Amino acid sequence: AQGRYKHRDKNYIMVDVPGTYSLMANSIEEEIARDFICFGNPDATVVVTDGTCLERNLNLVIQTLEITSNVVVCVNLLDEAKRKKININLEELSELLGVPVIGTSARNGIGLEKLMDAVHDLTNKKTITTPLRVHYDNGIEEAIAILEPSIKELLTGKLNSRWVALKLLDGDAKLLQSLQRYLGFDLSENINITDKLKEAWEI
Predict the structure, then answer these.
(1) Is 184 left (phi over 0), alpha (psi -120 to 50) or beta?
(2) 187 contacts 151 by C-beta, under 8 angstroms
(3) pLDDT in tens, 144-160
(4) Mapped to the 3 state alphabet, what secondary structure does 101-155 carry?
(5) Alpha-carbon distance 91 to 89, whole Å?
């Protein structure tokens, strides 16, 4: 679903994708959400989380941060969280994640203006993000280090090369098909990538 919104004299097209808890897609709806975040080139991605069960949603937040740094985290249902005596330190969460975190109670219209301010500042380069970087165990980090430089040369800034290296190591067939459609070529057919991938798998 799409909608248009004007904020601070800027026009925005807002795209609502199917809800998902993970970018490791297990359904058509999740694939649509994942592919839009990965390959739709949004100027900003707003990840809407549930303040009453925030931990469950942080998996999606962190997976999104591996793809793009242009992220605003919206912690919704703060009114419900308060009723359940759940207190969320939004400033500390923002520091930990390295991106803006805005609290809202959307059905009451609370926090929506502040959310759009955060989107505006991010898309107009007034906010510099420093996304949390996930560090995997030594074997995976070594494999990424072997593979990523060759991928970076081919992508020329189109996608996060570290994330693409992880996906090649994962071997998720459906995601790799989407990646091929987006890039217009198959990374796995590149001899250099194939050699590096083989070397990475042997670690």
Answers:
(1) left
(2) yes
(3) 999 999 999 898 778 99
(4) EEECEHHHCECHHHHHHHHHHHHCCCCCCCCCCCCCCHHHHHHHHHHHHHHHHHH
(5) 6
- Contact between 66 and 103 (Cβ < 8 Å): no
In the structure, what pLDDT confidence band is assigned to residue 133 with cuts at 50, 70 and 90? very high
Cα distance between residue 49 and residue 1, in whole Å: 19
Q: How do the residues of the chain divide into helix, strand and coil, expressed in percent and rounded to 5? A: 55, 15, 35
- Tell me the CA distances in angstroms from 107 to 77, 78, 177, one per residue in order: 8, 11, 38
Alpha carbons 133 and 156: distance in angstroms, whole number: 21
pTM: 0.92
CA-closest candidate to residue 52, choices 10, 86, 16: 86
